[in-house]
Amino acid sequence: MNPSLPFYRAARRDDARAVAQLIEIAGEGIPSFLWSQNAEAGQAPLDVGTARAAREDGNFSYRNVVLARLGDAVAGMLLAYRLPRPDAGDLAALPEIPALLRPLVELEYQVPGSFYVNALAVFPQYRGRGIGRALLTTAEERARAAGCDSLSLQVFAENERARLFYLRHGYGVVDRRPIVAHPCYPYSTEVLLLTRLITG
């Protein structure tokens, strides 16, 4: 295997810390803020995220992750899964969800049954090698295997680099929600829901 070329494999439980680090990069501050709310005295937010990623179940489990690796190093990650259809209880609970998260959850509820790219990130030193593009291709392969006919994801409107990346790869904006300004992230306008049909 050529160590200068990335290869891709399903994450393992012992990859949980790298998974958490990449979730934090993809979430642009939101994951660390949420993890800090659940941290015990003296516990770092990243430790909380690592424990979540190490779980065997739940959306943020390592079981929903594909890693990109270069040699022995983790270079990037895809966290994706099929979105369930919200039930009446889920919809009734929307007003109780913190304002920071409510727009994101509302948009998820618009695309039940889609294969949701919750997080896609590449460590800075490995960018520009086509890893993000390859991970998107992996998302489509996993979506097909899960029986989904579309992919979905969210991006902050002000994150132009990410927004243009997804538009170049066939995603289109189908909905949006205003967001509340918060110290944990650098945005203040809106979050966009993008989808792409799986064809062929």
UniProtKB/TrEMBL annotation:
Residues in N-acetyltransferase domain copies: 21-192
GO molecular function: acyltransferase activity, transferring groups other than amino-acyl groups
InterPro entries: Acyl_CoA_acyltransferase (IPR016181), Bact_Acetyltransf (IPR050832), GNAT_dom (IPR000182)
Organism field: Pelagibius litoralis
Domain of life: Bacteria
PROSITE patterns attached to this UniProt entry: GNAT
SUPFAM superfamilies linked: Acyl-CoA N-acyltransferases (Nat) (SSF55729)
Entry protein name: GNAT family N-acetyltransferase
UniProt cross-references to Pfam families, sorted A to Z: Acetyltransf_1
Keywords (A to Z) from UniProt: Acyltransferase, Transferase
